[in-house]
Amino acid sequence: MGDNPQSGQRKKLFIKTYGCQMNVYDSARMADVLAPLGYTAAETPDGADMVILNTCHIREKAAEKVFSDLGRLRVLKTEKVAGGSDMLIAVAGCVAQAEGAQIMARAPFVDIVLGPQTYHRLPEMVAKVARGAHGRGVLDTEFPLEPKFDHLPAPKADGPTAFVSIQEGCDKFCTFCVVPYTRGAEYSRPPSDLLREARTLVEGGASEITLLGQNVNAYHGEADGKTWTLARLVRALAEIDGLKRIRYTTSHPRDMDDDLIKAHGDVPQLMPFLHLPVQSGSDKILAAMNRGHTRDDYRRIIEKLRTVRGDLALSSDFITGYPGETDADFDDTLELVQEIGFAQSFSFKYSPRPGTPAANLKTQVPEDVKTERLHVLQQVLDAQLRQFNAACIGKTFDVLMTNPGRNPGQIVGRSPYLQAVHVTADPKHIGSIVPLKIVSLEAYSLGAVWADESERAVSA
Ligand code: 5AD
Ligand code: SF4
Q1: Which ligand has an atom closest to residue 358 CA?
Q2: How does DSSP classify residue 270?
Q3: If you measure from the C-alpha of residue 291 to the centroid of ligand 2, how many angstroms do you get, rounded to a whole number?
Q4: Residue 155 Cβ < 6 Å to ligand 1
Q5: pLDDT per residue rounded down to tens, the chain (460 residues)
Q6: What is the Cα–Cα distance from 427 to 208, expressed in whole angstroms?
Q7: Between 3.30.300.30, 3.40.50.720, 3.30.2350.10, 3.80.30.20, what CATH number should domain 152-390 receive?
Q8: Which residues of 226-235 are buried (b: 16+ CB within 10 A; e: fewer)?
Q9: How many CA atoms are closer than 13 Å to the CA of 356, on its beta-carbon side?
Q10: What is the domain partition of the chain in residue ranges?
Q11: Contact yes or no for 183/94 (Cβ under 8 A)
Q12: CATH for 11-140, options being 3.40.50.300, 3.30.70.920, 3.40.50.12160, 3.40.630.10
């Protein structure tokens, strides 16, 4: 479309990302669409020409944080304006989607409010602000008919690991969750686009791809009049030369079909680590949450997965104090946790989200009870995490080296179980998968030595 008059100027863009990996992915795409306007990444908001807060609405705390961050940005913007320049402030993501008008009213210095489905239109919105809509602000929280993915530049590989967003939105309507309202209906991208995107990423140096979606295993992409499941997509991706590892997140127990379970057994690239949220171990609460599965269904899925892939480790999300949860219901959760054994977990106090069915229930659990249950649950989950990590000592893992480490001479990578592993080694190994023997447990990572060297040391 000819030269963009703005493209020659270098401008600083700072994006703060809250919440899930989907948002991390979206932030990178927003940076991509703004690059042609001359925006390059800044490490801090100080002095930036544009700041985007890519927000999360999943729990109350995450949403509150946005308003306190906006307060700080207002000061920075005022300073820039006093110096004769300006700082564009945009609020993107799920808080923007859910509370767009309130943001405009409460923080009138915000220039742009955009929902997760419209970030491909960011350049247009920036241009509108530049044309003088400034002061009134641009609000775009539609769910456009044409998927945003058709309007976005293909992501470029940025290191050995990459994300591919394959699915968005959710039709499950768990009664506690805002996602179906903020991200909209389930949408699956066509397999041909995804395979092309994955090939480009691998050619650019990525050897691990994580497939993303709010309800990723509900994937149902259309190709030549046929519907592809996630299992079929994973098998097709596994054919790509150079793609060594495949992961997917976040999945729902109800969509864990037998073919996908089987893929865990016969697709070696599929990593033996699965995030499969259960939320609660009580059948009564699971039904009230509209999860569509029982604790026994969950147990059976895990059993099948462990049958085909004995070394599979699990991760889950939990909510304590969902309305109506009794001590007995909570004990059911603790029992399920003890029985399954999780390598990693995320647990939260129930947070009533405006507009969701559970928020209106009269049986809200008192805050102190939610807090106490969370504390008890987290002690059990933390112990399981430590136990899982401790059991790794002495084992040899293939580790995908991704970054220089914090200490000089060290490099860091990720194990098949997504644990951070560091080793003393030449940075030339970054990008390779190397066999490392785990020798120590540290606060946030595992220490390792080269597997063959430790073998030599043992046999010497
Ligand atoms: N309150 C507490 N936790 C929630 N989650 C989603 N909605 C809520 C809520 N209203 C948690 C669920 C979900 C994870 C992403 O966030 O456990 O799996
Ligand atoms: Fe929210 Fe996940 Fe339930 Fe969808 S499946 S409504 S994203 S918790």
Answers
A1: 1
A2: B
A3: 8
A4: no
A5: 333 444 456 899 999 999 888 899 999 999 999 998 999 999 999 989 999 999 999 988 877 889 999 999 999 999 999 988 899 999 999 999 999 888 999 999 999 999 988 888 899 899 888 877 555 688 888 877 667 777 777 788 889 999 999 999 999 999 999 999 998 999 999 999 999 999 999 999 999 999 999 999 999 999 988 999 999 999 999 999 999 999 999 999 999 999 999 999 999 999 999 999 999 999 999 999 999 999 999 999 999 999 999 999 999 999 999 999 999 999 999 999 999 999 999 999 999 999 999 999 999 999 999 999 999 999 999 999 999 999 999 999 999 999 999 888 999 999 999 999 999 999 999 999 999 999 999 888 999 999 986 554 443 3
A6: 18
A7: 3.80.30.20
A8: eebbbbbbbb
A9: 28
A10: 11-140, 152-390, 396-459
A11: yes
A12: 3.40.50.12160
The residue whose CA is least distant from atom 13 of ligand 1 is 317
pTM for the whole thing? 0.91
Cβ(277) – ligand 1 distance below 6 Å: yes
User: How far is the C-alpha of 441 from the C-alpha of 55, rounded, in Å?
Assistant: 33
* 396-459 matches 11-140 in CATH topology: no
Read off φ and ψ for residue 147, nearest 5 degrees. -65, 140
Q: Is 180 in the pocket of ligand 2 (CB under 6 A)?
A: yes
| Ligand 2 nearest-atom number relative to CA 183 | 7
